[in-house]
Structure formats: C-alpha cells, structure tokens
Amino acid sequence: MWRAVAVRALLGAGAGIGAPRAVSGAAAAQLRRRLESELEEIRGAGTWKSERVIASRQGPHLRLAGGGGGIINFCANNYLGLSSHPEVIRAAVEALEQFGAGLSSVRFICGTQSIHKDLEEKIARFHKREDAILYASCFDANAGIFEALLTPEDAVLSDELNHASIIDGIRLCKANKYRYKHMDMQDLEAKLQEAQKHRLRLVATDGVFSMDGDIAPLREICQLAQKYDALVFIDECHATGFLGPNGCGTDELLGVMDKVTIVNSTLGKALGGAAGGYTTGPKPLIDLLRQRSRPYLFSNSLPPAVVGCASKALDLLMESNAIAQSMAAKTQRFRSKMTAAGFTISGKDHPICPVMLGDARLASVMAEDMLKRGIYVIGFSYPVVPKGKARIRVQISAVHSDEDIDRCVEAFTEVGRKHGALP
Ligand code: PLP
Description:
alpha/beta, Aspartate Aminotransferase, domain 1, Aspartate Aminotransferase, domain 2, 2 domains, three-stranded mixed sheet, binds pyridoxal-5'-phosphate, acyltransferase, glycine C-acetyltransferase activity, AON_synthase_class-II, EC 2.3.1.29, 2am3keto_CoA_ligase
C-alpha cells in the first residue's frame, strides 16, 4: 500500500494545495503503468537500492535522519577523511565568498575563473603530467574522452569489469571495441594482436576495481602496450590521493608513471569528496578535449566552493603523506584482524575491503545486523557483483580510530557467528 502511495507521489498523483498534480491523458497513464510494473520487477528481483538519509556531515561517525546517532561509517569513499576536514571546509567557504556560488555558464563562454586554471595546473603537477582539464564529474570525464579521441580507424581495448562510466564512454565512440577478460593478460595480448590492423590502440582499465579492491596489473599492461604499440588509459577514482609513495595513484605505486598516457580521476572521493573529475595527460590531448569533449563543452563550470575544496585537499596531500600512511596502517589493521577472525577479504593492501560471503541473503541480513550494532556497511550481490560472490564491502578511512576498526571487527565476528558465516 505504502509503495503505491510513494509511486503516486513520485509521479504526480495527488490533490490539494502544494500537492503534485498528475498529468492526464492516455500516454501518461500508460507510462505510469509501465513504470509501476518495472519498479515492481526491481523489487521482486531483490535489487531495489534504498538510500539511508544522513543528518550529519560525512565522516567516520554519522547521525542518520530519524535519530540514529553514533553510527560508525564504513561505506564512504572518504579514504583520507578530507570530506569534513576543517581546512577543506574553510577553503570552500573562502572560494564561495570570493568567487560566488557559480558561473551560470560553461567554461568556454563565460565560465573560467583563475581558480579553475590554478586547480588544473595543480592536478597536472600532482600527477606529473603536462596539463589537466576539469569536468563536473569523473563520469563526465569518462563519457567525454573516448569519443573525442578515437575514430572508426582506431581501437579501444577495455577490461570487462571496468566502471560503468568507462563502458558508457566507449559506447559513445565509433572506434572498434575489444573487451578483454578481467585482468587477463593472455586475453589482452590476443586482443592486441587482433587490433594491430587499426591505426591506434588504446587500452582502458580501472587502476583499482572498486567491487574487489584489486589493483590492475599495470606493469604487465604497459609492457604489452609497448610491445603492440598501444596507449594506456587508467581511471584512478579509487587510487588518487593514497596509492603510491606520494599518493599519485596506481601508476606511481607500480612504477609506470611514464608509460600511462591518460589518467582520469575524481575529486569526489579522496580529494575532499565534493564533486568533479578530470583528465590529465599530454597537452595536445587536453587542448583537443577543450575543443571537442561534449560533457566539457555543454555543461556548467565547477562551482567555486567545489574547486576550493579540491585545491586545498591537493595542498594537504602535497605537503605530507602522513594522512595516506595513517589510512594504510588502519587498512592493514582491519584486514589482518578480519583474516585472523576467519573471514576472507578480497584484494590486497587497499582500503576497499570486501568481506566475501557468497550468499546474497547472508550479505544482506548481516549488513542489517551490523547496523543494529552501530556499524554502517553495505552488502553487494548480483547483478552488481557476479552470482555467488555476494559480499559486504568495508571501506577504511584515515579518520577511523583503531577503536572504530576493532569495534567493526568485533561486530563482524558476532554477526558472522550468529548467521553461520563463521564456525
Ligand atoms: N570511475 C570509477 C572507477 C568510479 O568508482 C566512479 C564513481 O563511483 C566514477 C568513475 C565516477 O566518478 P564521479 O563520482 O566523479 O562521477
């Protein structure tokens, strides 16, 4: 019953002052029936995604709307804890006051401020690349690059488990498309051989795959790229700011910064967590994106407050790697204690720590029970991850205390025993 009411409210059925008004007509009625049945299907399949409402800042400790306080948060991409860092917030307020709420314009018409240029220069310096270009999100950066760069004469070779935004970006381009098996270098080599007939080959991979916390074999990918005269593109959303000695990312961690041509990443995770994305790489490529990349050309400039956050986050990281080191130590603490307790944690040395459970229902009921114990984690099951590989994904942040981590492990152990995931 409440579902029908919610759907009606969403679609505009209702009456009275301020209530949404339903659009009349046969087409609108037919659409409503179709949407309602589609929504029912999603619920029936058990894949409905509901959203918990947070009533506090993003951070290690949350208050949920409706009064649930004292929740320890293990499911944000706030790897370095910068989302609510006082200096990051201050920088946003200062940028807001000095440069206003927003640009009411795209970059090339009337939307480029000195802070946009400064941030692009800082990003390029951080990644040791020639230039950088900002987007409203990394989703946009991924949507905008392949179409601008590749033609029907070219080829793109993509890991089958790449992020949805890479997949969509590749769909938009007219290049020849090859999908290689996840991190399978034999398959990539076979596909590279097949793709020799094209003018240019671009291998596209996530630096870190967010469902498993596994790191792409970039050294091997770069060796193959060299052998078969290909370029390498990486999406560093789950690496920028903390992987590698200076937090530059997967390419720094694996010693191939000079072999990866294009890096796309986000400002919406470790780098302050507000929003925004970018491409960094050779200057002519960045120049071309400013001319041709559709999400850049036809979407509003990043708001100054968002630029201020990211810029301050990069300053903090370039001053010291202490924050990243603290996160690494906490990751290690969680992974080793959970393994000792008898759990299997996928990936290695990454703050994405998927607790592998296999069964979808088990992952879901355990995540619910964890929340009852004050630990906010999320269960993932098919179709987000392969069938039979359900898991609870835990994400560690530099701002978790050792006590937070230990409480999480204790809760997992209790809940795991209760539901038979541990003996
Ligand atoms: N690429 C990867 C690997 C991601 O995990 C995400 C975000 O979930 C994105 C791209 C999109 O980033 P943004 O939130 O900046 O659009």
